[in-house]
DNA sequence: AAGTTGCA
DNA sequence: AAGC
């Protein structure tokens, strides 16, 4: 990666090379601290299918799913409150989100090398005028982005460690997902895999 | 192989 | 169904 570059996919803005190696290492340490307080969980969808992506969160709310459905809640499934969102992430939110509100949730999504996430919309938040900011760490991931209807055509882009994507404006309700990882493509995590951090305003 | 659609 |  040379200079940071901005790409638009159906209203989703992707800033390639936004974070240098030092910032990535530092964020990874922050994530490790979150996961010590709030361990990764394998959620099931409302139909009872386990997701391949393991999840945790920081902030006032975390997103969870089980047979009762999708929702934000104030506690880890173990019953403990989520740890605070690290200051490093609040700074990135201020730099990239163009929002006048503070994020209330930082989802931590862990992708093992064979994990994926199907095409979906983020629409469990109360104020859809507020953007969602996504940070990639670790292995490259093929990120697929469609339109606001499931049947809309999709395009894909490979996200690398240190890339930032913003789902805002026209892209806020774009269908999106992760098809596959390029296992072992990043030296950030020696054992492979990917971490995606998403900052959101929930209420 | 990749991109859509249908499912309950 | 954020899965198959």
UniProtKB/TrEMBL annotation:
Signal peptide: none
SUPFAM superfamilies: Clavaminate synthase-like (SSF51197)
Keywords: Dioxygenase, Iron, Metal-binding, Oxidoreductase
MF annotations from Gene Ontology: dioxygenase activity
Gene3D superfamilies assigned: Alpha-ketoglutarate-dependent dioxygenase AlkB-like
Domain of life: Bacteria
Pfam family, one: 2OG-FeII_Oxy_2
Location of the Fe2OG dioxygenase domain: 102-203
The protein's required cofactors: Fe(2+)
Protein name: Alpha-ketoglutarate-dependent dioxygenase AlkB
């Amino acid at each position: 990666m040379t200079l940071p570059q901005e790409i638009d996919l159906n209203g989703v803005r992707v800033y390639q090379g936004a974070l240098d190696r030092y910032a990535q290492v530092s964020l990874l340490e922050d994530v490790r601290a979150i996961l010590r307080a709030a361990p990764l969980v394998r959620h099931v969808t409302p139909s009872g299918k386990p997701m391949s992506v393991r999840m945790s969160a920081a902030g006032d709310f975390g997103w969870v799913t089980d047979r009762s459905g999708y929702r934000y809640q104030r506690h880890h499934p173990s019953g403990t409150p989520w740890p605070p969102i690290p200051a490093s992430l609040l700074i990135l939110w201020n730099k990239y989100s163009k929002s006048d509100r503070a994020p209330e949730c930082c989802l931590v999504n862990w992708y093992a090398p064979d994990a994926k996430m199907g095409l979906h919309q983020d629409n469990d938040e109360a104020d859809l005028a507020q953007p969602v900011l996504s940070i990639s760490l670790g292995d490259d991931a093929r990120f697929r982005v469609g339109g606001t209807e499931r049947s809309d055509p999709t395009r894909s882009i490979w996200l690398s460690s240190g890339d930032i994507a913003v789902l805002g404006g026209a892209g806020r309700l774009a269908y999106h997902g992760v098809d596959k990882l390029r296992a072992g493509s990043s030296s950030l995590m020696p054992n492979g895999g990917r971490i995606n951090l998403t900052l959101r305003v929930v209420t």
